[in-house]
Amino acid sequence: xxxxxxxxxxxxxxxxxxxxxxxxxAEKALGVRFPRAYRDFLLFHGSAMGFGWExxxxxxxxxxxxxxxxxxxxxxxxxRARRASRxxxxxxxxxxxxxxxxxxxxxxxxxxxxxxxPVVGQGPGVDFLPVSASFVDFLIAWARDRLEGFx
Length: 151
Description:
Layout (H helix, E strand, L loop, with lengths): L1 H7 L4 E2 L5 H11 L5 H10 L2 E3 L2 E3 L18 H11 L8 E6 L5 E5 L10 E5 L2 E7 L2 H9 L8
Helix pairs in contact: 2-4
C-alpha cells in the first residue's frame, strides 16, 4: 500500500515526514485512530499539494501556533467543521480535502476495513455520500483528476 502512495505522490509537493508522536497527538485531539493508509500518508508525507487540490494532514515544519501554516491541518479543519455543525457533524468523519467551492471530502472511520476506509463527500445536496472505496483510491482519483463532476 505504501508503494502505491509513494508512486502517486512523486509529482506533487508534500510537507515531509511527520514524527509518530505528532500523528498520535492528532488522533488523540480528534478522538480517533486513523487507518494505516492515512497514517502512512501522514508519517511519510505529512500533507500533499498538487493537481489543483490539497490533501490535508500535518505540517512537520510548523512548530508553534504563531507560525502561519503552509498546509491545511487535518485536526484544525476537522474540529472547525465539528464546531460549525453544532453537533451535526459525526465524529467518524475526518476532513481530508475540499474542492475549493462547496464540497468537502472525509475519511469515513465508521467503515474501516483492513488498512483503509472509504472517503465520502459532503456539501449542499450531498450528505456524506461515498466518493471512493478507500483513501488510496481517493488519492488515485485525485492524481488522475477524476474527482471533478462528483456527485
